[in-house]
Cell division protein FtsX (Candidatus Sungbacteria bacterium RIFCSPHIGHO2_01_FULL_50_25), 302 residues
Amino acid sequence: MFFTNLRRITKTGILNYKRNGWLSTATVLVMVLMLFVIGNLVFTGALASVILSSFESKVDISVYFLPDASENSIISIQKELEALPDVRDIHYISRDAALELFRNRHKGNQLIAAALEEIGENPLQASLNIRAKDPSRYAAISEFLLQKNYREVDKINYFENQQVIERMGAIFKTLRGSGTFLAFFLAFIAILVTFNTIRLAIYTMREEIGIMRLVGASKWFIRGPFIVSGILYGATSALITLMVFFPLIWLISPRLALLVPEFDIFQYFLNNLFMFAILMFGGGIIIGVLSSWIAIRRYLQV
């Protein structure tokens, strides 16, 4: 008996879904937009995490020394820093080595070569490039350098890099915040549209509902088809969203790889396809069922 009723409820729900053709299409489209934004939030979050991690892994602390700093004093500072537990390695670049690197980098640039000749002396500074075992420990190393206040040190460039990282983090945070707001806004619109679609379906079926009441049909037998319709709206939207994402990500993956080689978005999509599908179907069905439930609680008194 239970399965017979369930089959009838499902059949009626599918019939309601088909009966409201244009409204069903509009409902599904709004839900697709909502799920598409949610999906983009997932990929944006993953991409932001990879970019920030990659950038942080490439960041080091460059300590530049005054021109009159002796090599012995610089080596002494290097040994002191190497004793710190957070330091992985330190690369010393002398003034002469820095000049040689600068010339090699700008080889063929006659203007720079002429400028160096005009100056007549080495304008570059000796430096120590410090790499930490963990990017999160750069701040502690920088704090150590500040507390030591070596008189030979001219400047420490970590703070400039840190500002760039913080700005990038703030940009991604703003993007995620804007995307989240848009997702909630579209979710509200989706609930509103689905709510009105179910309300119209209830109005359209008012005579059939009246007959079911007369013959003693249970509350769930009457309400069930509208819940099924809500599930169908959500499931259809999720399926369409996945079908849109698959070719779209496949197309943008090679182009994105040129900008961020560390992140293969298509492989990420495939690796997380199951969880992504759960998110899409779960989000769509929850919105569909919630909208239907609100509508039948308000307009279907049984």
In short: The chain is about 75% helix and 5% strand.
